[in-house]
Design goal:
The protein has 264 residues and is of the alpha+beta class. It has 9 helices and 12 strands. α2 runs parallel beside α5 (117-130).
């Protein structure tokens, strides 16, 4: 795959991981159940293979990796041990439970557990992304910006949003804080928490309704009334911005350091 396809794949992997984390984020008494289909896709992307043992759905790493075993259940425990040991701990037979030594192993997995829940998901997200070639050149960045500009010119919002999402990945930008969110706009920018407040920007704003794109080249303090009012004027196409339309895509591309490598 080319760089753009690998970058889109990274975005898909990040979204899968977010879905799984959301499904396991409840407390000890939570009735939530893990999003198993999403986790299976994440495990496949990381190169792990399924193995069914007793009533357990287990996943094993590629042969050249460490001796790890994942159990696909609500806790997502990742163990550093053998499949037989995991089977005994997670699904023991009556005969196995007669042994005091086995009971101790069943009741306490602290000696072999590596991670659980969100920590396990993040481990597999990183492993899946690490398998992608995320080296890029200036030409790769320009191609993404060109595709976005062409989509804007042809009034194809899905293409504009895809290009913005790809450039946001390269820039390390994030969706807006709640105070700057807007239902009818796709927004991405640099989010920083400093000086006791939230600062958002530089940022890009795309109006799905009016097919207009604006680039603001400075951070805005969410708690500052003037900055908040300015942002609302941007949404209403009443503010002066650093670049608009096709020029906004040029400005975004110019902000990306190239050549380089996007780290997992």
């Amino acid at each position: 795959m080319g760089f753009k396809e690998n970058l889109k794949r990274k975005i898909d992997i990040d979204r899968l991981a977010a879905r799984v984390v959301e499904s396991v984020s409840g407390g000890p008494d939570s009735t939530r159940r893990i999003d198993k289909p999403a986790m299976r896709q994440l495990l496949e992307a990381a190169g792990w293979q399924v193995r069914h043992e007793r009533d357990l759905e287990l996943y094993l790493p590629p042969k050249d990796e460490a001796d790890l075993v994942l159990v696909l259940d609500n806790d997502l425990p990742l163990y550093r041990t053998t499949v037989d040991d995991v089977a005994l701990r997670k699904s023991p037979t009556v005969k196995e439970m007669v042994s005091i030594r086995n009971i101790r192993r069943i009741l306490n997995d602290g000696d072999v557990v590596v991670s659980k829940k969100a920590a396990t998901v993040d481990r597999f997200r990183s492993a899946a992304v690490a398998r992608l070639d995320l080296n890029y050149t200036a030409a790769d960045v320009s191609a993404i910006a060109f595709d976005g500009a062409a989509s804007l010119d042809s009034r194809y919002p899905e293409g504009v949003i895809e290009a913005l999402d790809l450039l946001a990945q390269l820039l390390g930008w994030q969706p807006p804080p709640t105070a700057f969110a807007s239902v009818h706009h796709h927004i991405c920018g640099r989010l920083e928490r400093r000086d006791g407040g939230i600062h958002y920007g530089p940022l890009a704003v795309f109006s799905r309704v009016h097919n207009r794109l604006w680039f603001v080249d400075r951070p805005l303090n969410v708690a500052d009334r003037d900055d908040a009012a300015y942002f609302q004027h941007v949404l209403q196409a009443k503010a002066r911005v650093a670049a608009e339309g096709l020029e906004a895509f040029k400005a975004l591309a110019a902000a990306v350091p190239a050549p380089g490598r996007l780290e997992p």
